[in-house]
Design a protein that fits this description.
Elements (H helix, E strand, L loop, with lengths): L5 H8 L1 H18 L16 E4 L8 H18 L4 E5 L4 E5 L3
Parallel strand pairs: 1-2
Antiparallel strand pairs: 2-3
Length: 99
């Protein structure tokens, strides 16, 4: 999942607030309770979000950032879906989205 200009949001409001926003987006999707009869994990649409944050020193770092975010999303999907993981260089944060 991609939130437009999310890096700028994190830069302005901080990563803790950014994590809250991702959680709120996921809960909003859950609140809609859109039916998904073929989902093996929920009778409704769910979302999995993977993210990465850090300081890019030059444009070449962007590829590393994209790959790292993809890795976080893959990890979410492998661990059961319906949650998010935000990775940085030193730690990973995981939050389950279920109520």
């Amino acid at each position: 999942m991609d939130v437009d200009y999310f890096k700028q949001y994190n830069d302005r409001y901080g990563h803790a607030q950014g994590d809250k926003v991702l959680h709120a987006i996921a809960q909003a999707v859950e609140t809609l309770a859109i039916a998904h009869e073929r989902s093996p994990i929920s009778p409704h649409i769910t979302v999995s979000i993977g993210g990465f944050y850090g300081q890019a020193s030059h444009v070449d770092c962007l590829d590393y950032f994209y790959k790292s975010a993809d890795h976080a999303l893959y990890a979410v999907k492998q661990s059961g879906r319906n949650h998010f993981q935000i990775h940085d260089h030193e730690q990973a944060m995981t939050q389950t989205l279920e109520k």
